């Protein structure tokens, strides 16, 4: 009787064997790449508002379900800046963390804070009315958010808006901070499968 009781207790409290279980192949971040259209409503120091349209390329690596990193390259242009028949453009190159407070099967909401640089070329006017042309390549940052909607397991689109801080020349031909509002729509391809 004693041996039967010991055998039953051993079966009840036995540690499960892991030797025959499936092996984990590896854990890697989910990679997404995309391209899209961007619109920037810029505020050139001492001159006023300028609207630029262009394109951007993005690369995301989601390290965890609610955290990832983003790399972004954008280019926007205005062909007749302030009616001078000269162009103004803005090239941004930034990277930073992305947080996903809401992530469902079809939709995810994100917030981002990107740091990097921006090269802006264009025109401005001195206080005496003299036209000034040049470029400034300075530190830049952007903070904002948006949402992404999944169309298929591999394709989705993303709508976003950011506050973008760059720098350009003012009427004293000194570099000054510039505030911009940026909106974008991107078409995204997901490599692999998101769980």
Question: What spatial order of strands do you see in the largest sheet?
Answer: 1-2-3-4-5-6-7-8
Please identify the top-level CATH class. Answer: Mainly Beta
Q: Assign the CATH topology.
A: Porin
Mean pLDDT: 85
Rg estimate, integer Å: 26 Å
Q: What is the chains' assembly state?
A: single chain
Written description of the protein model:
- This protein is mainly β.
- The protein has one domain: Porin, CATH 2.40.160.20.
- The chain is built from 1 helix and 8 strands; from the N terminus they run H-E-E-E-E-E-E-E-E.
- Strands 1-2-3-4-5-6-7-8 form an 8-stranded antiparallel β-barrel.
- Strand 2 (48-64) and strand 3 form a beta hairpin.
- The radius of gyration is 26 Å and the shape is elongated.
- The relative contact order is 0.19.
Characterize this entry briefly:
The chain is mainly beta and 195 residues long. It has one helix spanning 2-12; strands at residues 30-44, 48-64, 67-78, 88-103, 107-125, 131-150, 155-169, 175-191.
Write the layout of secondary structure elements.
Elements lengths: L1 H11 L17 E15 L3 E17 L2 E12 L9 E16 L3 E19 L5 E20 L4 E15 L5 E17 L4
Antiparallel strand pairs: 1-2, 1-8, 2-3, 3-4, 4-5, 5-6, 6-7, 7-8
Tag the structure with descriptive keywords.
Porin, 1 helix, 195 residues, elongated, eight-stranded antiparallel beta barrel, 67% strand, 6% helix, mainly beta
């Amino acid at each position: 009787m004693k041996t039967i009781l010991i055998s039953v207790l051993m079966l009840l409290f036995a540690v499960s064997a892991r030797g025959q279980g499936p092996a984990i192949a590896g854990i890697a971040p989910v990679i997404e790449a995309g391209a899209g259209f961007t619109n920037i409503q810029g505020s050139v120091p001492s001159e006023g508002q300028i609207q630029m349209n262009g394109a951007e390329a993005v690369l995301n690596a989601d390290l965890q379900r609610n955290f990832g990193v983003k790399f972004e390259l954008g280019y926007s242009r205005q062909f007749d800046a302030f009616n001078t028949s000269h162009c103004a453009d803005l090239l941004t190159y930034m990277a930073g963390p992305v947080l996903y407070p809401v992530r469902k099967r079809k939709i995810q909401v994100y917030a981002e804070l990107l740091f990097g640089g921006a090269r802006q070329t264009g025109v401005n006017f001195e206080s005496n009315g003299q036209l000034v042309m040049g470029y400034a390549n300075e530190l830049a940052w952007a903070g904002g958010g948006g949402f992404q909607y999944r169309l298929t397991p591999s394709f989705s689109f993303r709508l976003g808006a950011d506050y973008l801080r760059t720098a350009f020349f003012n009427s004293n031909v000194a570099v000054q901070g510039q505030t911009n509002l940026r909106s974008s729509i991107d078409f995204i391809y997901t490599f692999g499968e998101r769980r």
